[in-house]
Amino acid sequence: MKKTKRYKIHVTKGDFVQVITGDEKGKVGKVVKVLPRVSKVIVENINIKIKHIKPNDKVDTGKIIKLEKPIHSSNVMLHSQETQTASRYGYQITNSTNTKNSKQRFFKKTKEIIT
Length: 115
Prior knowledge:
- The protein has no helices and ten strands.
- By secondary structure, it is mainly β.
- One of two assembly initiator proteins, it binds directly to the 5'-end of the 23S rRNA, where it nucleates assembly of the 50S subunit.
């Protein structure tokens, strides 16, 4: 059985991202779901597609459903809500009073900590 590769994705669920390429370029949204096996993310109110469902025995009438489709993770960039800018991220190790150090993400452009 062949194992599927899991890609490292630079965004996590709950992050705000800005689309940097494609039809939705410039739009900002919140990451709803991360799909690491296909290196894609689903962003709230971005890449909405319409699906038509025909009527059948279970459903009396047809429906039109709007779905948020995944976009490739390379087409999004982390977005700062405070400064309204998109930026790459880095890791910063902070010394805390405890014996353990904590690793936090930060925006490289503004040096703001990502929460």
